[in-house]
């Protein structure tokens, strides 16, 4: 039973900073920073899906704003780009607000928010410590909602932008011994649907991304299943990029991951029979 960083997002638990770090620009190994470029703010950018997504946007010339708790890992992600690293703990009081303020102060705009920060916990729910329940919900759900709330007004005022929320197949079908993680990701899915309706006509879109298990390490331990095979962070990053480029509401990586949710909707009895052996 472990509380760990998922393959997609938040850095492993470490010392909590005494206060939010001021934004700092990494040494520029690539093109000089230009404020007229499109800007993407990536949380969970120190590794996994967040780092891969940042690099994919950099390939198309976007200005990167990278958030995580590990400055060294953020600078590795930023290497070869003109990215700004904004280390901060989103679980800290006021963390999302301070990150949004730092990002907007640095560039004056955020065209895409990729909310990839989160952690996972594996084990029987009855044995899960209350503190870990709170921490998973705080990072996987609450911090994301607060960060979107802070960034959204600037997008609405500009009449453009896109919020990209990183979900999980666990939020679509429920995964045994990942009950709280499943609940948090299911909450993000509902939030994405509701927010998308509210933002109609504003020029701001919402994309919900559903990746499969990112291997080879699972949430809380090694991923030892033969099927389904784990997906690479790069595969998810490509789906994120295409979804943003095409203004899509949803993205699945790999694309067959749409099947479990469809079976659940169209054939709930079959879904429940399949859940025991495969859930």
UniProtKB/TrEMBL annotation:
Record keywords: Oxidoreductase
Entry-linked Gene3D superfamilies: NAD(P)-binding Rossmann-like Domain
CDD domains given in the database record: SDR_c
SUPFAM superfamilies tied to this protein: NAD(P)-binding Rossmann-fold domains
Region (Disordered): 1-33
Top-level taxonomy: Bacteria, Bacillati, Actinomycetota, Actinomycetes, Kitasatosporales
Keyword Ligase among UniProt keywords: no
Gene Ontology CC: one annotated term: membrane
Identification of the protein by name: Short-subunit dehydrogenase
Family the UniProt entry places it in: Belongs to the short-chain dehydrogenases/reductases (SDR) family.
InterPro entries registered for this protein in UniProt: KR_dom, NAD(P)-bd_dom_sf, SDR_fam
Ranges of residues in domain Ketoreductase: 38-217
Top-level taxon: Bacteria
GO MF term list: oxidoreductase activity
